[in-house]
Design a protein that fits this description.
The protein is α+β, with helices and mostly antiparallel strands. It has 16 helices and 44 strands. The structure holds calcium ion (CA) (3 copies).
Length: 869
């Protein structure tokens, strides 16, 4: 069945004819590599190197995946029970997988236990591509007829507005926005019981699925685009193309074949033929800092190379003149390339270029975008994170910028007591004991103040709130952050951007954070982990948070549509997860103690309340320790949880030591804890530098010894990758760890300049701003010449960004493919802004700025001294 015909201009038709099947097939055969995937130059197929996530399920990074010409164009190739499944829909269980080097094939054994359906996926090399087959142990169970099919999902940002051709005769264009008709697909009474929140979500969505865009036996995508053209033909039944975005904004294009009844071995057989360009090599990527370089500092670009690329040995730097012409000012060798994962990396050091101006690097016939050399390059690298992104994330207020309302006053109906024994779909957990005077479902008054939306979602997550408060309080103190572009009125619940109100924005943000922390303590007697959406419909809400709930307190006595003053019969109020946890007792203590210092002089009463509360909580926790009890789906071992609590205890003690100007009890406790904490020097031990002003020479010596041990270990660790910063090897991009390194090393440098150089902090800042793998795009949206402009903020449905948001950045698609897709913002592990990364960036960028200024002023001082003589 075909339900879309689109007339195309002759030029496109001609291209289509040239590239149509079978001429697309190149002459190559793939081999299973030592890393156990199928590969030929320009094309790789992975099978279940990654699995579905235990909590978040579908991350668009698993099952059969294809990388063509250096881009991951397809994912999630496996049997699914719907044309366009979403994040929480049923997935198969992986039982095992094999890579067969002799026969050049990959296979995976899978199962849908609830349907007694077991099968083997097989991807085998064949001339010009791969043969994909689904092989069942026994013919398809009756219940799954017309439902189980093989799905392969294609990246929409590559294919929208490109053409497709079906059976060599019909053609159309991939739609920019989802346009297919929907039809109802009611659930079967035989289906296994879903979790209650999934059932509720399915009901709310109405059990609909899109009809196919097109159906046929063979299909070619993007014949006009040699890099992305690919043909797929089916031996066993028709192929249908669907648009997953009809159901969810993060959907991909899905190609699907239903499993026919009565067949087992070879139930589905596809032949997949990408247009692999013979001898294709990936163009070099010149990673450099998108805000530029300070004149007297190292300037090192890192060039990422395809090992098969014939790499020139030299690069050059061009300077832009006023008339638009470029003139070479420097030429020099690149270092010998060193391998890391699938690419090699060479350094290009152009530190001798020092004159202020605008420059580009030219390498292998390509020119980078322009960057400045100037003294003030970092001085504007952080403001958008403070008065842009973090302002947009402010909860319980409206946020306006000029004519634009970012969002209205949100969550006025916060919050309802969450029930005991709840496992939440975002990972929150509450056991049998709710540690709260409120009844499950009861409204907890006073929680509708302050706080920030945690990330790309809208919950209030305790630990990130604490970190933002601490970071901004520290930034305000250390860098005298008087920056004032926000007008914040907590009484009127309004925030206006680009409207100074005489109060530093960092101070206003700190206050906004503590209002929520104090409200929790006042309401239930202690801080707690989460204020969170009760259902998936709210959790997936994109747009103005003020419209996510009705803002009225839920009253069970009212009928569903009934409204009475500030009460309504709609159960949409967020849930408060109120478990008492040691890590949060100390975490909140640390945040409040830090805040008390920043608020002094602006709101003395609140500053005092913060300090008094912190002192009381710390004492209480010391005399009656809270049992560390943090069960979760995340699989953290118990001693890891205890370590987290101990780290928070350490941090809170340091903050109280400073806030009380050397309080004896805290000083003693710092001395007691240091021998243990210094074993985790990089993860908190280093913060002992903050205690130095209050400690004796003996403590300083101990700390110095620890720093001397730490630095060579750290150097060794950092040397493991070409970028000299913590590599991003887990399931979430690592920009947070790098920003942390920048902050940590700044404070260690300030305390021990003879042991710790200033270079680490600049290296970390330059990494975030573009000197990283895959692309040279700045990870801070709208900061730098080229920055990430499609990201996973809460406005992602508009394919856009929030100024100053910091993304996680690249991850390794297992086993060896680094990825951070520029033109797509829906992969949370690459693209999701989180508030504490933004606040850490405010610190790190200010640190880099301070180091540059310090060196420049001391250099000027030397000149002045010399001139005086
Ligand atoms: Ca969250
Ligand atoms: Ca202000
Ligand atoms: Ca409500």
């Amino acid at each position: 069945m075909v339900n879309r015909f689109v007339g195309l201009p002759h030029a496109i038709l001609l291209v289509f004819l040239l590239f149509s099947l079978p001429s697309l097939s190149a002459d190559f055969t793939m081999h299973v590599t030592d890393k156990d995937y199928l590969s030929t130059q320009g094309f790789n197929v992975m099978l279940y190197d990654n699995t579905f996530h235990p909590v978040f399920v579908d991350e668009k990074n698993t099952a059969m995946q294809m990388v063509v010409h250096g881009e991951r164009i397809a994912t999630n190739g496996d049997v699914r029970l719907m044309p366009t499944p979403e994040q929480w829909d049923l997935v198969a269980k992986l039982k095992g997988r094999r890579a067969d080097k002799e026969r050049n094939l990959l296979s995976a054994d899978l199962s849908f236990p609830a349907y007694q359906m077991d099968y083997r996926l097989e991807v085998a090399a064949e001339p010009g591509g791969v043969r994909l087959s689904v092989n069942l142990d026994k013919p398809l169970p009756e219940k799954l007829a017309g439902r189980a099919g093989f799905n392969l999902e294609f990246l929409p940002s590559i294919y929208v507005d490109k053409t497709y051709a079906v059976d060599n005769r019909l053609f159309g264009v991939f739609p920019r926005s989802p346009q297919e008709q929907m039809h109802r697909v009611p659930p079967s009474p035989d289906d296994p019981k879903k979790l209650p929140y999934q059932e509720e979500w399915d009901r709310a969505k109405g059990y609909t699925q899109p009809l196919p865009i097109v159906t046929g036996n063979s299909i070619t995508f993007a014949p006009e685009d040699p890099l992305h053209a690919i043909s797929i033909s089916s031996e066993t039944g028709p192929l249908s193309l669907y648009d997953g975005r009809n159901r969810a904004q993060n959907g991909w294009f899905v190609l699907r074949s239903l499993i026919p009844s009565g067949k087992a071995e070879g139930a589905i057989v596809w032949h997949i033929r990408p247009n692999v360009i013979p001898n294709w090599t990936r163009p070099p990527m010149v990673a450099h800092c998108q805000v530029g370089y300070a004149p007297g500092f190292p300037k090192v670009a890192i060039i990422e190379l395809d090992p098969k690329f014939d790499a020139p040995r030299t690069a050059r730097v061009l300077r832009l003149a006023d008339d638009g012409s470029y003139k070479q000012v420097f030429g020099g060798p690149i270092s010998a390339p060193t391998p890391w994962l699938r690419y090699t990396y060479a350094k290009f050091d152009f530190s001798p270029v020092k004159d202020p101006g605008l420059y580009a690097i030219e390498y292998a016939g390509r020119r980078t975008d322009l960057f400045p050399i100037a003294n003030d390059i970092y001085s504007r690298a952080w403001q958008s994170s403070l008065d842009g992104y973090l302002a947009v994330e402010m909860d319980h207020v409206s946020v306006r910028e000029g004519y634009r309302l970012w969002h209205g006053v949100s969550h006025l109906d916060d919050a309802r007591q969450a029930p005991p024994n709840t496992r939440h779909f975002d990972g929150a957990w509450m056991g049998p004991n709710i540690d709260s005077p409120f009844q499950p479902g009861q409204h907890i008054p006073g929680l509708n103040v302050g706080g920030w939306y945690d990330a790309g979602d809208y919950d209030i997550r305790a630990e990130t709130q604490y970190l933002v408060i601490e970071d901004l309080a520290l930034a305000y103190k250390e860098f005298n952050l008087q920056w004032d572009e926000l007008a914040v009125d907590e009484t009127a619940r309004t925030v206006e951007m680009h409207r100074p109100d005489g109060i530093p924005d960092a101070v206003e943000q700190v206050k906004h954070g503590v209002l929520q922390v104090l409200a929790q303590i006042k309401a239930v007697g202690h801080p707690f982990p989460e204020v969170m959406e009760p259902n998936l419909r709210e959790y997936t809400h994109l747009g103005d948070a003020a419209s996510k709930t009705d803002g009225r307190v839920y009253d069970t006595k009212l009928a569903p549509q009934q409204v009475q003053g500030n009460f309504s019969g709609v159960p949409d109020d967020r849930w408060a997860f109120t478990t008492k946890e040691a890590r949060l007792q100390y975490g909140a203590t640390a945040a409040l103690a830090a805040a008390s210092q920043a608020l002094k002089g602006y709101d003395d009463a609140l500053a005092k309340e913060c300090l008094d509360t912190a002192v009381t909580m710390w004492q209480e926790e010391q005399s009656h320790p809270t049992i560390t009890q943090y069960p979760s789906d995340w699989g953290f071992p118990a001693n890891f949880q205890q370590q987290i609590a101990r780290n928070e205890e350490w941090k809170s003690t340091l903050q109280l030591l400073i806030a009380t100007n050397g309080g004896k009890v805290y000083k003693r406790h710092v001395i007691e804890m240091f021998p243990e904490i210094q074993k985790r020097f990089g993860r908190g031990g280093w913060m002992a530098v903050f205690a130095l002003p209050y400690m004796n020479a003996d403590f300083k010596q101990q700390l110095e010894a620890a720093v001397r041990t730490y630095i060579p270990e750290l150097d060794k660790e950092l040397a493991a990758t070409p970028f000299g910063v913590p590599p991003s090897l887990r399931g979430w991009g690592g920009s947070k760890e790098v920003v942390d390194l920048g902050v940590q090393m700044y404070f260690l440098h300030r305390a021990f300049p003879e042991i710790v150089s200033s270079e680490y902090t600049l290296r970390a800042a330059n990494y975030v701003l573009g000197t990283h793998p895959v692309s040279s795009t700045s990870y801070v949206s709208s900061v730098g010449t080229v920055s990430k402009l499609k990201a996973y903020g809460n406005n992602r449905a508009d394919n856009t960004f929030i100024p100053g948001g910091v993304i996680p950045g690249y991850i390794i698609i297992k086993p060896d493919f680094p990825e951070c897709i520029d033109d797509f913002g829906f992969l949370w592990f690459e693209d999701e802004y989180v508030i504490d990364v933004a606040s850490r960036w405010v610190l790190a960028a200010n640190a880099a700025n301070a180091l540059v200024n310090e060196t420049q002023s001391s250099a000027m001082g030397t000149v002045a001294d010399r001139d005086a003589k």
